[in-house]
């Protein structure tokens, strides 16, 4: 069995609590991990402050070169990353391959953005008092960035914290999910190998009380958190950090109007609802279909769902692997059964065996049911008819979340109406809300979070503007 240790200020820890990482598919023990404690958190913060002073002096080209070297090292170890993602998270091989490729791209995008961090010239002579003076705005690193990541994209989301932090000259402390820490630990090792100063690199696997110590320490300049809404908003209350980014997921919706390409819509909905067992922040959960094409689209979605292969994530033929745990699967199926008790109907799926949940399609759901109003994070979609496009937009907005929404229509006026009226961070016309490329500004409103990810936008969160005024 492999042994992995938390990294504190560039060094693997020697003491702590050992625990087992097991495969969510079959329970096989994957690795032993040495988890850090309060003293390790303190050491990582102390080292990060020292490291921040060093990396703040690195010129942009040097930070960019380190990130390019990191991407090269990740490419060399690509198969190892894929193996870890399958083993620790139960991610089907094709999804593990896709995440690894995206993670490398995220680091390369960050390398490019490292040399693009600009500023502004501020004309101060707008008023007589400013005559003879000129202002320059430049962005400076906040110092210490704490990145907290969830289990579902343990590598790429870690890169969305680490890449922009390095690009902007900050020290980084990564706190991965305890169930999927291995890919982040390998990432930390490679960052050190790429040449980033050791004091500025920590990957700390720890319990919630230790994580709270990190998040609430006044030496932290920015927290970047991806995870559940309850944990994220509680963290915001407790955090002493001046800057915090929260990406908290939602119950993403799709509108399919009668003028849409129904074949494409059906295929993309099945992909977005059931890929990675629905454990995606922007997984398709609510589908609103124009009444004239409702029956036809349901038939198409059902037929495509029947073709999905569920099972062993290491099998290249597998479409849908396990959920992260038996407990998560039980919570999801309980919500499905509660919905059925309130009048919903199961068209496909609705069964659980261990951590494996069948891709499930529900009709007859209403807004108050947990399968609709809560984030399912499971392979479950709810399909509901609507009469008018305006009604569909209102149904999407009837949610405390607002991350992304998809709209299938060929009418530019409807597309523009959706963009103007949907209360979400991104509106995807002609595709599902599950679409994301890593350079785009990504984030939501309401309980879906605050701030934006994507290297360029994360760099803004991880830096502070500073004004210099020169009297001529």
What does the model show?
α2 packs across α6 (182-194) and α3 (78-89) crosses α4 (93-114). Strands 15-18-19-14-13-21-22 form a seven-stranded mixed β-sheet, sandwiched between helices. Helices cover 39% and strands 23% of the residues. The mean pLDDT is 97. α8 (229-238) links the parallel β11 (222-226) and β12 (243-247). The protein is α/β, with parallel strands linked by helices and 472 residues long. The protein has helices spanning 38-55, 60-76, 78-89, 93-114, 156-167, 182-194, 208-216, 229-238, 262-274, 294-306, 326-341, 370-373, 389-397, 412-421, 455-461; strands at residues 2-5, 7-8, 11-12, 17-22, 29-35, 119-123, 133-141, 144-148, 171-175, 201-203, 222-226, 243-247, 253-256, 286-290, 345-348, 352-353, 356-357, 360-363, 380-386, 401-402, 404-408, 426-429, 445-446, 449-450, 463-471.
**Poorly predicted ranges (pLDDT <50, ≥5 residues)?**
none
Fraction in beta strands: 15-25%
The major beta sheet can be summarized as: 7 strands, mixed
Distance between the termini: 67 Å
The backbone outline, from C-alpha atoms, is globular
SS summary, helix count: 15
Overall strand count: 25
Specify the helix fraction band: 25-40%
List the strand order in the largest sheet. Answer: 15-18-19-14-13-21-22
Overall pLDDT confidence = 97
Q: What is the CA-based Rg, rounded?
A: 23 Å
Structural class, by secondary structure, is alpha/beta
């Amino acid at each position: 069995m492999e042994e992995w240790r938390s990294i504190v200020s560039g060094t693997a820890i020697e003491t702590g609590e050992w625990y087992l990482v097991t495969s969510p598919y079959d329970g096989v023990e994957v690795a032993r991990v040495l988890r850090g404690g309060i003293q390790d958190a303190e050491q990582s913060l102390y080292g990060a402050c020292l490291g921040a002073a060093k990396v703040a002096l690195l010129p942009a080209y040097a930070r960019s070169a380190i990130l390019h070297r990191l991407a090269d090292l990740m490419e060399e170890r690509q198969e190892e990353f894929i193996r870890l993602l399958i083993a620790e998270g139960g991610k089907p091989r094709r999804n593990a391959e896709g995440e690894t490729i995206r993670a490398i791209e995220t680091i390369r995008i960050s390398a490019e953005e490292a040399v693009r961090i600009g500023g502004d010239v501020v004309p101060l002579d707008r008023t007589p008092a400013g005559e003879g003076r000129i202002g320059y705005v430049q962005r400076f690193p906040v110092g210490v960035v704490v990145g907290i990541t969830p289990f579902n994209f343990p590598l790429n989301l870690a890169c969305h914290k680490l890449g922009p932090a390095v690009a902007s000259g900050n020290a980084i402390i990564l706190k991965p999910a305890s169930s999927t820490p291995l890919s982040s630990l390998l990432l930390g090792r490679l960052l050190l190998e790429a040449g980033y100063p050791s004091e500025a690199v920590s990957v700390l696997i720890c319990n919630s009380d230790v994580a709270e110590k990190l998040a609430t320490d006044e030496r932290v300049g920015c927290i970047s958190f991806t995870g559940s809404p309850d944990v994220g908003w509680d963290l915001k209350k407790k955090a002493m950090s001046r800057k915090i980014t929260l990406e908290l997921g939602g119950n993403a919706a799709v509108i399919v109007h009668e003028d849409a390409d129904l074949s494409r819509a059906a295929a993309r909905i099945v992909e977005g609802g059931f890929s990675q067992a629905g454990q995606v922040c922007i997984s398709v959960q609510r589908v609103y279909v124009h009444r004239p094409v409702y029956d036809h689209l349901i038939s198409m979605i059902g037929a495509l769902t029947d073709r999905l292969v569920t099972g062993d994530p290491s099998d290249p033929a597998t479409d849908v692997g396990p959920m992260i745990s038996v407990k998560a699967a039980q919570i999801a199926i309980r919500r499905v059964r509660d919905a059925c008790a309130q009048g919903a109907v199961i068209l496909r799926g609705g069964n659980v065996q261990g951590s494996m949940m069948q891709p499930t399609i529900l009709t007859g759901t209403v807004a108050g049911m947990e399968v609709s109003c809560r984030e399912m994070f499971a392979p479950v979609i709810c399909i509901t008819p609507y009469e008018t496009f305006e009604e569909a937009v209102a149904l999407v907005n009837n949610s405390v979340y607002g991350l992304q929404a998809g709209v299938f229509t060929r009418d530019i006026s409807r597309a523009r109406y959706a963009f103007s009226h949907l209360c979400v961070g991104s509106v995807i016309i002609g595709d599902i809300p599950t679409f994301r490329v890593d350079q785009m500004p990504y984030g939501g409103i309401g309980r879906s979070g605050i701030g934006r990810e994507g290297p360029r936008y994360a760099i803004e969160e991880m830096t502070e503007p500073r004004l210099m005024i020169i009297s001529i």
